User: Fold this.
Amino acid sequence: MVESYASDISDKKLIIHFCNRYLHTYFLCISETRIHKEFYYLLKLISKKNTCFYMMFKELILARQSVRRYSETPVESEKLNQCLEAARLAPSASNSQPWSFIVVDQDPLRTEVAKATFSDIKLINKFTVQAPVMIVIVMEKAKLITRLAMMVKKKEWPLIDIGITAEHFCLQATELGLGTCMIGWFEEDKIKNLLQIPSDKSIGLLISVGYAIEGYPQRAKIRKSMEEIVRHNRY
Ligand SMILES: Cc1cc2nc3c(=O)[nH]c(=O)nc-3n(C[C@H](O)[C@H](O)[C@H](O)COP(=O)(O)O)c2cc1C
Assistant:
């Protein structure tokens, strides 16, 4: 019945429209009974067939969260490339694009890189060993004009650029049903050694990538209130 329901809808746009309307509810984990039953099955069917959802921007930013438990399901290289393409298109100061990406998906290298994000005494980041892919964002030299401007203005724009490209990556991953976590805590020298990164370069950020374990909860966003962060016309 489910199959025939899906095949009845020949227009892919209609499915996308359905997804956009209901996905937010789906991601907020409202119980099955409250979602139209047929639509729930349709969503499941589509996810199984690996068709990506198209989300509205608000739904996408609500759906993106740091995923810290991964299943063993490998990440499709096509999806990974889409995430890298989204990262590539990110804006940067003077369009310097001061980044390059190392995809680490081969063991034992992947495990070794993951292990460099935690130590026995520190409990954080142990989950990274579960992630089938680790992305290492290397900071590349900014354009001369950017470097000069940075000296004059005493600002570190490449770090900002790395943050933006990383978020592009993560948002695209979310749209494709993948889970990510940006990792800022890591043993830089260890990873540089493992990946043969030249000594004059530094690592900006790591991103763990993979499918969240089944039933991984969609957490509510804990954020400062608008009143706390927004001021008008003066500090
Ligand atoms: C620059 C940066 C570094 C981060 N480093 C880590 C990290 O080392 N380990 C970790 O578990 N999460 C890390 N995070 C994830 C944050 O803890 C997380 O984004 C924040 O708590 C908000 O939660 P959410 O991503 O689920 O919305 C980092 C995030 C950013 C932006």
